[in-house]
């Protein structure tokens, strides 16, 4: 009686192991859906799919926010597809800022490796949590909450942000309000700003209407 049971268990283990899929490297030739990219044929997967070298150089901070965010999400780093994680490099020149924004699809963990960063987030109860971080400090931002980063010193600051999703998503509040075609009258009503202020911000951030 024991032998059939042992044999059945052995066959079950073999079948389960055969069904395990170690990874799902993103097939960037196909569309991306809510669940990520479809899987690349394992026969075409190489070690290059699991290595990202885009952080060797600093991002270009010559822009309106004096900052650069260099992502290594599934679209840039196919090996993280389906693994529930990703990473990005943040460069903040003196005076640099990553404006108030949210990642609807992931929590974020920020590690400062150079300089000083003033950062924080706002809870859904409108409680504010702000801290000045220096090299070696880490802060976490819960999923979906508004947060920001500002250079807190006189030299370039560098940090790495890890996310609990290969595609955390991003919405910057300033651009959501003033960088699109939403009519100015509606923006004024919903922000309590006057027409001149709204038009000025739309001109700066590329909006219209």
Automatic annotation (TrEMBL):
Keywords: Apoplast, Disulfide bond, Manganese, Metal-binding, Secreted, Signal. It is found in: Secreted, Extracellular space, Apoplast. Disulfide bonds join 24-39. Its main location: secreted. GO terms for molecular function: manganese ion binding. Transmembrane segments: none annotated. It holds the Pfam family Cupin_1. Mn(2+) binds at residues 101, 103, 108, 147. InterPro entries: Cupin_1 (IPR006045), Germin (IPR001929), Germin_Mn-BS (IPR019780), RmlC-like_jellyroll (IPR014710), RmlC_Cupin_sf (IPR011051). It comes from the Eukaryota. Residues 53-199 form the Cupin type-1 domain. Belongs to the germin family. This is Germin-like protein. It comes from Sesamum alatum. The lineage of its organism: Eukaryota, Viridiplantae, Streptophyta, Embryophyta, Tracheophyta.
